[in-house]
Amino acid sequence: MHKFRVLFLCTGNSARSQMAEAFLKAYAGEHVEVHSAGIEPRGFILPEVLTVMHERGMDMSGQTSKSVSEYLGKLHFSHVITVCGDAEERCPTVFLNMGIHEHWPFDDPAKFEGTEAERLEFTRRVRDQIDTRVKKWVKSQNSLSVHES
Hints:
Elements: E1 4-10, H1 16-28, E2 32-38, H2 47-55, E3 79-82, H3 85-90, H4 93-96, E4 100-103, H5 116-140
Parallel strand pairs: 1-2, 1-3, 3-4
């Protein structure tokens, strides 16, 4: 069986791209090989992201923040999806020219300032937007089907 190889790309690889990777693995893991990376990786996943994904039953403790340079010249992606404007503008051209490129802009939980409760609520909203968009993408791929978790 042919698997799509998908890369979600954002600035820090600490929130949006990590959530998109987790949702796509959950919904279509048997059909995709999914990765995420950052233009300037933060080196960690935001605690709020770990919390709100755990609320959905997704354990991301094994995920790490990675640099897009880890994939340069090593993997070819059938789909490259940027999830923020910064990554869209600064993505290495080699990735934008391989496979199918899409841009899904989402607000950045890493830039949101507020109380812990406000940060969690903001991150939940972004999580739900990413979840909806990943489900829509999976349904748009003829060979994939959504597996709700």
